[in-house]
Design goal:
The protein is α+β, with helices and mostly antiparallel strands. It is built from eleven helices and ten strands. The protein has helices at about 5-10, 100-105, 125-135, 140-160, 175-185, 195-200, 205-215, 220-235, 240-250, 255-265, 270-275, and strands at about 20, 25-30, 35-40, 45-55, 55-60, 65, 75-80, 85-90, 90-100, 115-120. The chain is globular. Mean pLDDT is about 80; it is low at about 160-170.
Length: about 280
């Protein structure tokens, strides 16, 4: 029976950038592919971490592309035996972590992987996966192998369950998890660094360091991507004026919105609206 990695590689038409087995777990890094893909059912459940690239990855669901998009700092769970469709608009960098069902059962975590979960916030799981990935590119020694095994044990303990309490740590991971979800749900809100840090119970400088370690982006970049993602949705699905969209999403002016959108999408808001209609 082919492995998850073999199935994904055949679908994408390329091998992973990096692949390694750690015990029963299989890590693979996939980069730089664009297009729409029909991924056949996988053999084992997979935990997907979006670590970088353009934030415009969607899932095919209910006979249409999902309104939500995966951005760097999001995680997705794809259960075994479920085929999925994906649309990727730009360079992407993801890590897949495949876990055999018997290993999940041994860890009493099998229920966490039964249902599809797309683009949710998991700061601890993502931070640990990033750290493991970095270690895999370094020279392998017995000490590093032991360290990776320790990180892997922590990852087993942090894989999330829907609506479950997020594990607390010394940097208030649960609060950051909630803040990330709130930004995605309400990108137009008051998301200044000071306001976000106060909600997390941290100083602005500490919050900024922790947030970047968890997501790979600064709080400002995360908020801006969420706003520009929502702007693309409004440009494509409504007749709102450019000025109204800028005001609704919290930009200081229409010119500020236009500059940010051009940098993000490679064209002006009006130009982008014209190309998709």
């Amino acid at each position: 029976m082919p492995s998850n990695e073999t199935i994904i590689a055949k679908t994408l038409g390329r091998a992973p950038d990096r692949s390694v087995n750690i015990g029963a777990w299989q890590f693979a890094r996939w980069r730089q592919f664009i297009g729409s893909y029909e991924l056949p059912a996988l053999v084992d459940p997979v935990f997907v971490v979006h670590v970088g690239g353009k934030p415009d990855t969607r899932l095919w669901e209910a006979d249409q592309w999902s309104k939500s998009r995966s951005i760097p700092g999001c995680a997705t769970i794809v259960p075994a035996g479920v085929s999925t469709g994906w649309r990727i608009d730009g360079e992407l960098d993801v890590v897949t972590v495949s876990v055999p069902v018997d290993e999940l059962q041994r860890q009493s975590a099998v229920d966490q992987f039964r249902a599809m979960r797309f683009a949710f916030a998991d700061p601890l799981g993502i931070a640990l996966t990033r750290q493991i990935l970095g270690e895999l590119y370094a020279a392998q020694t017995e000490e590093r192998a032991n360290y990776i095994d320790t990180l892997l044990g922590a990852l087993r303990g942090t894989t999330p369950v829907a609506d479950a309490a997020f594990p607390s740590t010394d940097f208030s991971a649960y609060r950051i998890h909630q803040i990330m979800n709130d930004i995605l749900a309400h990108p137009e809100g008051d998301h200044t660094l000071e306001a976000l840090a106060q909600r997390a119970g941290l100083t602005p400088s500490h919050f900024c360091r922790v947030f970047k370690k968890s997501t790979g982006t600064t709080p400002h970049q995360y908020v801006m991507k969420a706003r520009l993602d929502r702007a693309q949705e409004l440009l494509g699905a409504s007749d709102m004026s450019i000025a109204a969209i800028a005001d609704r999403l919290g930009f200081t002016s229409q010119s500020h919105f236009t500059r940010a959108f051009r940098q993000y999408a490679g064209q002006t808001p009006s130009g982008w609206r014209h190309t998709i209609q």
